[in-house]
Amino acid sequence: MSVSIIRVIAFAVIGLAAVAAAGLWWRAPSGPAFEVASKPVRQSGQASIGGPFSLLDHTGRRVTQAMLAGHLTLIYFGYASCPDVCPMELQNIGAALDLIEKADPAGFADVQALFITIDPARDTVAALADYTSNFHPKLVSLTGSAGEIAAAARAYRIYFSKVEDKPGSQSYLMDHSNIIYLMGRKGEFLAHFSTGTGPEKMAAKLREFQ
Ligand code: NI
Questions:
Q1: Domain check: are 116 and 65 in the same one?
Q2: Fewer Cβ atoms within 10 Å of its own Cβ: the N or the C terminal residue of the chain?
């Protein structure tokens, strides 16, 4: 290799290094763009729980999200044929309502609890009237057409799916999200409780907003 070829290679290496360094330097200011891009994701988290619904209550009355106005509302999605989790959660909600009433009988007027079925085929108005009588007198159960229930579940980010006992069998279970929401006086999301949250914790959280 001649000296002149070595010189050309050396200049080429230095030149490439300079280009690479310039590239790194120019890339540095792009850092903040990542933070800006991540902001809308964080903002959409809480605001998206809740929204419009149009359903029938267990007395056959048509109700909408307007029924949340001026109330603190516990909302739970489930179904009357649920063998275990749903009745347990509805009992917890009933016990929480009793605790809230005991602590503040006057403020209790603003508090309500909704049970929204994700199994409208079986949970008719009549079936829900019967089922609801097993729980707290304040509990209101809601049903509707398959489309109305799907829309309400979508608004509250509730997943549900039919699980057949055996292929072709008439009996089935419903797989569904187990979450209790606390919504505020303007229908806004305030808090959520996961499965098995005791009535004391639920009542204490709700009372923070009374
Ligand atoms: Ni259930």
A1: yes
A2: N
Residue 104: how many CB atoms within 10 A of its CB? 14
Task: List the shell of residues around ion ligand 1, using CB closer than 5 Å.
Answer: 78, 82, 85-86
Query: Per the confidence metrics, is the pTM higher than 0.85?
Result: no
* Judgement on whether residues 152 and 188 belong to the same structural domain of the protein: yes
The answer to whether residue 13 sits within a structural domain is: yes
CA of 64 to the centre of ligand 1 (A): 23
* Predicted confidence (pLDDT) per residue in 135-190, tens digit: 999 999 999 999 999 999 999 999 999 998 877 778 899 999 999 999 999 999 99
Using the mean position of ligand 1's atoms as its centre, give its distance from the Cα of residue 79 in Å: 6
Q: Domain span at residue 157?
A: 47-208
Residue 40 lies in a domain: no
- Terminal-to-terminal C-alpha distance of the chain: 87
pLDDT given for residue 12 in this prediction: 55
> Which amino acid would we find at residue 145?
S
- Whether 110 and 72 have beta carbons less than 8 Å apart is answered as yes
Q: Is residue 39 part of a domain?
A: no
Cβ atoms < 10 Å from Cβ of 28: 7
- What is the helix (H) or strand (E) element at residue 67, kind and residue range? none
How many other C-beta atoms are found inside a 10 Å radius of the C-beta of residue 91? 14
Q: Separation of 174 CA from ligand 1 center, angstroms? A: 7
Whole-number Å distance between alpha carbons of 46 and 43: 7
